[in-house]
Amino acid sequence: MKIARPVVNAAGMVLFGEGMELTEGILEKLASLNIESIYVEGAGEPRLSRDEYLRTMEVAFSKAGDDELTTALRRVLQEHINSLYGEG
Fold first, then answer.
1. DSSP state, 4?
2. Which domain, by its residues, includes 26?
3. 38 with 61, same domain?
4. Which terminal CB of the chain, N or C, has fewer other CB atoms within 10 Å?
5. Residue 54 and residue 85: Cα distance in Å, rounded?
C-alpha cells in the first residue's frame, strides 16, 4: 500500500509524503507518533453489506421524523450507500 495524502503532525510538518510505500517500520513510527489514521491509495471495500447499511440508516432515522430536511438527508444517504455498491 502507498500513502495517498501527506501525513502531517499537529504543527503541519510533513512526516511522510504522498506515494510513499507503507512498510512495517513506517507503520511502527506512525503508531509511536500516535497517528491514528492515514489515507492510502486504492478503493476500499465497504465493511457491511448494502442491506446492513440501509437497516442501520433506517434505525438511525426512525426517531427523526418525516420533515422535509430529514427526508432529504435520508434520500442523499441512501443514494450514497447505493453508490458504494454500484447501484444508483
1. S
2. 1-42
3. no
4. C
5. 12
> Which pLDDT belongs to residue 88?
58
Per-residue confidence band for 67, with pLDDT thresholds at 50, 70 and 90: confident
Mean pLDDT of the chain: 89
Tell me, yes or no, whether 2 and 37 share the same domain. yes
54 with 24, same domain: the answer is no
The three cell numbers of residue 67 are 420533515
Q: Do residues 38 and 54 share a domain?
A: no
85 touches 50 (CB < 8 A):
yes
Handedness of CA 23, 28, 32, 38 (dihedral sign): positive
What is the count of structural domains for the chain? 2
Nearest by Cα to 4 from 38, 54, 53: 38
Q: Please, which pLDDT band fits residue 79 given cuts at 50, 70 and 90?
A: very high
Report how far apart, in Å, the C-alpha atoms of 67 and of each of 53, 61, 77 are: 22, 11, 16
Which cell numbers in the block locate residue 71? 427526508
